[in-house]
Design goal:
The structure holds two protein chains of two kinds.
Chain A: E1 2-9, E2 13-15, E3 20-32, E4 42-49, H1 57-72, E5 78-84, E6 88-96, H2 100-108, H3 118-131, E7 137-144, H4 153-165, E8 168-175, H5 181-190, E9 192-198, H6 204-216, E10 218-228, E11 233-235, E12 241-245, E13 249-250, E14 253-256, E15 259-268, E16 273-282, E17 291-304, E18 309-313, E19 317-324, H7 333-356, H8 360-376, H9 380-394, H10 401-412
Parallel strand pairs in A: 2-19, 4-5, 4-7, 7-8, 8-9
Antiparallel strand pairs in A: 1-3, 3-16, 5-6, 10-15, 10-17, 11-16, 12-13, 12-16, 14-15, 17-18, 17-19
Helix pairs in contact in A: 1-2, 1-6, 3-4, 4-5, 7-8, 7-10, 8-9, 9-10
Chain B: E1 2-3, E2 10-11, E3 30-32, E4 39-41, H1 60-70, H2 80-86, H3 88-91, H4 98-106, H5 111-117, E5 131-136, E6 141-144, E7 151-155, E8 165-166, E9 179-186, E10 189-194, E11 201-203, E12 206-208, E13 213-215, E14 221-224, E15 230-237
Parallel strand pairs in B: 7-8
Antiparallel strand pairs in B: 1-2, 3-4, 5-6, 5-15, 7-9, 9-10, 10-13, 11-12, 11-14, 14-15
The chains are: A alpha+beta, B alpha+beta.
Chain lengths: 421, 238
């Protein structure tokens, strides 16, 4: 199994009469499947909230969804289940899935009681996952419906970062309307996973299936994007790298010698990860004639769980730009769409920050520009949600908890119609 | 430094998309005004500092009005001097004695009739009051400010405060509020004030917050509403 790495600039041509140009580089990364190699087994841990608020229909549907999830897994996969209220306990110890019925019975025995302490749940999950992490794709699904009232959010994030160090991925699922989208998003972003919003109990089964399909398509893990910039190219000063697909995440980077390393996490076989890098190319000093100049050298470093090899390097890709005399903008429409996706996310974030500061008018204006951006990229569903919320703010009404969650989700992803997801 | 119009993030020069919110940034290149050397936007028609017409090619022809504009209000003492210096001959028969001159200096009111009586070819000097005008950039139409008014209302016809300067005839005037702004004449200066318009006012491309006053200088670019669609250049004549 190897890596597909594609790079394209927002505009390949640079105006020779300008001293410098700003360009965005879209990097698409995915795992490529060869016909003969199958994926590594899954090592999944379900972290389920069974606090008192889950009582009744919510917990019943979650248990049902979890049991259906077990049915869809392979016999070679490993599973463990951790339940938490204000303290956490191991419901199903990490085991290969050769006796699915007993696993399902244990899931069924969960009872709704107590408060919510997410960090203890994650801590136990890490222990369970680490029992079977060799040669497997390690994933954790954290489902909760409430605020982390008995726990510490900072501790959650530390565990999420620890999970990444151990090459595990944490996904979060927010159930209902009373969870904290800020902390769940941070856990998912830090844990290299995705955040899902289950608005009504009926959606639990489908969201579980979507998430399972995503983790089953993970081919390579612990991937890092390595960038080497020539002296005349510099990154933007503010948040220069971000992932835009499958969901928008601000990425952090670290320097490794003359390389810039950006952690991507798992690589899927059927879903591209798209990373936008914001660059300034100073071409005044380079050449005074038309021609191509190197902009960046990109490479991916990854682990292959099947072969139990780590630190494999892909073939480097050199991105070049053309210096032209009579410059005319030729914008790559695909890259443009990725940029718009990032713009939508950033504008919504700014709006949310303004709302927190109490600037409702500013927040409404910002949401409106985010809606416009969404419309521009053809994401009509997001545009509708954002515009509705902007109008609501302008008319002086508060946003409900559900509105806020919906806003966060539509800003982060392009919502798929249920039929093709 | 380019400030993002959407989120106010300060972007480095050369940025085309805001680093914070990826809003496309206005591409601004600055050029030096050929007349006064101030840096102005390359797409501007007039220099915001000296009022130099950047669309005109020749510098020489324009320098003269620029001097006129920058010249302070002519004091009564100065009036006779250029006249007598420029045309000494017609004055000789009149025989202005030093006493007469001191009389003129001590009694400024009598200056205007004296100047009018002299066969001067420059009748403009007798005007004591500055008149101002607004040049509409998009159509090149000049609107005189009514010079008997302390406050000139800008806007479109309405029942509350009828505009003294009605912009409803100009293209894109739909972005201008009916009660948009006032120009006040106080002392010897004009002040611009946005009276709570919906789309705001931009002076030299900088937003003017409602309630703030801006002292107008010749050459100031006043844009009513966003997008620089209804814009005026403020001009002063003596």
């Amino acid at each position: 199994m190897s890596v597909n790495l594609n790079c394209s600039l927002s505009d390949r041509n640079l105006d020779i009469s300008q001293p410098s140009s700003q360009r965005q580089l879209a990097i698409r990364v995915s795992a490529s499947t060869n016909a003969d190699s199958s994926g590594a087994p899954l090592n999944l841990c379900l972290v389920l909230d069974h606090s008192g608020s889950m009582g009744g229909k919510p917990l019943d549907t979650v248990k049902k969804a979890a049991r259906e999830l077990v049915d869809q897994m392979y016999y070679t996969d490993r599973i463990s289940v951790v339940g938490f209220d204000h303290k956490a306990s191991v419901v199903v110890e990490s085991q290969t899935l050769d006796r699915p019925e007993s696993v399902k019975d244990k899931i069924q025995s969960l009872r709704a009681t107590g408060g919510t302490c997410i960090d203890d749940g994650i801590k136990l999950a890490l222990q369970e996952i680490s029992k079977g992490k060799e040669g497997a794709v390690s994933q954790g699904f954290v489902l909760t419906d409430g605020e982390n009232e008995h726990g510490d959010n900072a501790r959650c994030l530390q565990f999420a970062q620890l999970a990444v160090e151990y090459n595990m991925t944490l996904h979060t699922l927010g159930f209902g309307d009373h969870w904290n989208q800020d902390i769940l998003e941070k856990i998912a972003d830090a844990g290299g996973g995705t955040m899902t919003y289950i608005q009504s109990p009926e959606q639990a089964g489908e969201e579980f299936r979507n998430l399972l399909r995503r983790v089953q398509s993970v081919g390579l893990t612990n991937a890092y994007l390595l960038l080497e910039l020539p002296a005349n190219v510099r990154l933007a000063e503010l948040k220069p790298v971000a992932q835009v697909a499958p969901d928008a995440i601000e990425l952090t980077m670290q320097n490794e010698g003359n390389l810039i390393a950006i952690r991507l996490g798992d690589l899927m076989t059927d879903i591209d990860r798209v990373i936008i890098v914001n660059l300034y190319i100073n071409h005044a000093a380079v050449v005074n004639q038309s021609g191509s100049i190197p902009v960046v050298t990109a490479q991916v470093r990854f682990d292959n769980p099947v072969m139990a090899k780590s630190g494999i390097l892909s073939t480097p890709v050199v991105v070049e730009a053309n210096l032209v005399q009579n410059f005319q903008a030729q914008i790559d429409p695909q890259v443009q769409n990725h940029i718009l996706a990032l713009a939508k996310y950033r504008q919504t974030q700014l709006a949310e920050n303004k709302l927190k500061q109490g600037d409702r008018i500013g927040a409404a204006t910002m949401l409106q520009s985010a809606a416009k951006t969404a419309l521009q990229m053809g994401d009509e569903k997001a545009a509708t949600v954002l515009q509705t919320n902007a109008t609501r703010l302008q008319s002086g009404t508060e946003l409900s908890e559900a509105d806020r969650k919906q806003t966060r989700i539509v800003s982060k992803t392009v919502l798929q119609a249920p039929s093709n997801s | 430094m380019i400030t993002c119009p959407s989120c106010s993030h300060q972007n480095p020069d050369g940025a085309t998309h805001c680093e914070a919110c990826y809003t496309p940034l206005p591409v601004i290149t600055m050029i030096d005004c050929p007349s006064c050397g101030a840096s102005v936007q390359s797409d501007a028609s007039f220099c915001g500092h000296c009022g130099f017409d950047l669309t005109a090619k020749t510098t020489a022809a324009i320098i003269q009005p620029q001097q006129e504009v920058s010249e302070p209000l002519p004091s009564p003492i100065q009036v006779p001097e250029p006249v007598s210096a420029a045309e000494p001959d017609p004055f000789q028969p009149v025989e202005i004695t030093p006493d007469d001159l001191t009389e003129i200096i001590t009694m400024p009111v009598s200056t205007a009739p004296t100047a009018a009586a002299s066969p001067s070819s420059n009748p403009k000097t007798q005007l004591q009051r500055i008149t101002a005008s607004l040049l509409h950039v998009q159509t090149n139409v000049t609107l005189e400010l009514p010079n008997n008014l302390q406050v000139t209302h800008l806007g479109k016809p309405n029942n509350l405060i009828p505009p003294d300067i009605d912009v409803s005839g100009f293209p894109d005037s739909d972005i201008v509020s009916r009660v948009h702004a006032d120009i006040r004449f106080e002392g010897d200066a004009f002040y611009f004030e946005d009276t709570g318009s919906s789309n705001g006012t931009y002076i030299n491309n900088v937003p003017l917050p409602a309630g703030n006053r801006h002292r107008l200088r010749p050459g100031d670019r006043i844009s009513l509403g966003k997008g620089d669609k209804v814009s005026f250049i403020f001009q002063m004549t003596e």
